[in-house]
User: Which sequence fits this backbone?
C-alpha cells in the first residue's frame, strides 16, 4: 500500500514539474540559430521559451553576415520570441580605419535590431599581431569600440578562454564532457599547446579590459570561465557590478562542487545569473526538422537542467559525479535566472516585449 502511494506521489510530482517547465517563462540567453527552417518556433511557443541567438567568430565579415541573415530574419518574423547579438570582424585589425569601420558596422547592426555584441574566444586564442603575439581582450585598439557600445547602452556578451580543464591533461579533467571534447578536438586542448596564452593570461586580460570600462554592461559567458569554483564566480561578480554570468553548457560543473555552496551562491547572486544552453540549431548537421530537433532538446538538455534547479531529487549521472542532489530553488530565484535577469541585461529585448521591472 505504502509503495503504491510513493509511486503515485513520484508520478504526480514529476508530472507537475514537466507542466511547470512548459508554462514557466524562460529565456535561453545563449544559443546559436543558423537555420531557415522556422518550424522550431512552434515548440518555443508551446514551452513559453524565448531565445537570444549569439553570432560569433570574428574571422570574416562574410561569415558574420551569413549568421546574421538567419537571426535577423527570425527576429523580424518572431520579435517576441527571438533576439540576437551581432559580432564584429577582425579583418584589417591594426589598420588605421579599423575602429571607424567597426563602429559603423555595429551602428548598422543596432539599427537592424541587435540587442548585444558577442565577442568570442578567438580574441585571445586565435588572432595574432604582426609580431605574432596574441591579441588579447585588453588591447587598447579595442577601447574606442567598447566606449561606443557603452554609449549606445548595448551589452557586450563575451566568451573568454575555455574551461580550466582545457589546460589540464585529459585524465585530470573534472568532467567527461570536457575530456571527451578535448580528446576529439586536440587542436583546442591547450595543455598540448604551451605556446598559446595561459588560462590566467586570458582571464587577467579580460579583467583588465573591464577595469578600463567600468560602465560597460557585460555578460560573461560560460560562468566567466570560472566554472570550477562558485567562490571565484562570486569574487568576479563582486568586483564587476555591471557584469552578469551566463551558465551556458557549464551547469554540469555545479554538480561536482559542494551542493550547499552552489545553492547559496545561486541564491546570493540571483540577480546576476542568466540561464543558457549553448545549443545550436543549424541548417546543416541535422536529419529532421528543427521542430523535431528542439523537441528532443527540450526533453533532454532543458528538462534535465530544470529538474536539477527545481527539485531536491538525488540524481545519478553518467559523468564523473556519481550522485548529486537537485538545488530546489524557489520560484522567485528561478524567475530571475530563467527570465528577468536576461531582460535586465538586454534592455532592448525588454523594450520589444514591453517588459517593465
Ligand atoms: Zn556559444
Assistant:
Amino acid at each position: 500500500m505504502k509503495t503504491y502511494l510513493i509511486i503515485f506521489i513520484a508520478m504526480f510530482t514529476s508530472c507537475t514539474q514537466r507542466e511547470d517547465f512548459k508554462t514557466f517563462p524562460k529565456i535561453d540567453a545563449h544559443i546559436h540559430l543558423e537555420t531557415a527552417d522556422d518550424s522550431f518556433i512552434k515548440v518555443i511557443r508551446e514551452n513559453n521559451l524565448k531565445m537570444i541567438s549569439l553570432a560569433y567568430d570574428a574571422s570574416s565579415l562574410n561569415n558574420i553576415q551569413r549568421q546574421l541573415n538567419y537571426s535577423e530574419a527570425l527576429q523580424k518574423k518572431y520579435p517576441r520570441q527571438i533576439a540576437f547579438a551581432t559580432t564584429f570582424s577582425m579583418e584589417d585589425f591594426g589598420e588605421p580605419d579599423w575602429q571607424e569601420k567597426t563602429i559603423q558596422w555595429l551602428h548598422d547592426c543596432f539599427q537592424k535590431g541587435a540587442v548585444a555584441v558577442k565577442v568570442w574566444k578567438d580574441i585571445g586564442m586565435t588572432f595574432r599581431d604582426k609580431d605574432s603575439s596574441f591579441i588579447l581582450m585588453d588591447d587598447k585598439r579595442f577601447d574606442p569600440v567598447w566606449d561606443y557600445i557603452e554609449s549606445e547602452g548595448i551589452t557586450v556578451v563575451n566568451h573568454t578562454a575555455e574551461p580550466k580543464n582545457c589546460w589540464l591533461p585529459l585524465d585530470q579533467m573534472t568532467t567527461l564532457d570536457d575530456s571527451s571534447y578535448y580528446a576529439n578536438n586536440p587542436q583546442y586542448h591547450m595543455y598540448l599547446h604551451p605556446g598559446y596564452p595561459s588560462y590566467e593570461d586570458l582571464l587577467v586580460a579580460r579583467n583588465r579590459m573591464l577595469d578600463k570600462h567600468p560602465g560597460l554592461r557585460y555578460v560573461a559567458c560560460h560562468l566567466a570561465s570560472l566554472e570550477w569554483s562558485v567562490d571565484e564566480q562570486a569574487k568576479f561578480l563582486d568586483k564587476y557590478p555591471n557584469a552578469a554570468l551566463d551558465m551556458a553548457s557549464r551547469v554540469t560543473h555545479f554538480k561536482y562542487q559542494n551542493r550547499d555552496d552552489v545553492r547559496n551562491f545561486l541564491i546570493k547572486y540571483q540577480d546576476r545569473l542568466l540561464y543558457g544552453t549553448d545549443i545550436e540549431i543549424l541548417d546543416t548537421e541535422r536529419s529532421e526538422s528543427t521542430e523535431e530537433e528542439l523537441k528532443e532538446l527540450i526533453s533532454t538538455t532543458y528538462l534535465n537542467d530544470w529538474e536539477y534547479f527545481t527539485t531536491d531529487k538525488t540524481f545519478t549521472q553518467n559523468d564523473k559525479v556519481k550522485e548529486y542532489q537537485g538545488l530546489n530553488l524557489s520560484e522567485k530565484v528561478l524567475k530571475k535566472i530563467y527570465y528577468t535577469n536576461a531582460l535586465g541585461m538586454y534592455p532592448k529585448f525588454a523594450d520589444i516585449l514591453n517588459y517593465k521591472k
Observations:
- Residues 24-287+330-352 form a domain with the TIM Barrel fold (CATH 3.20.20.140).
- The CA atoms of residues 96 and 141 lie 10 Å apart.
- Confidence is low (pLDDT under 50) at residues 1-16.
- The first helix runs from residue 2 to 23.
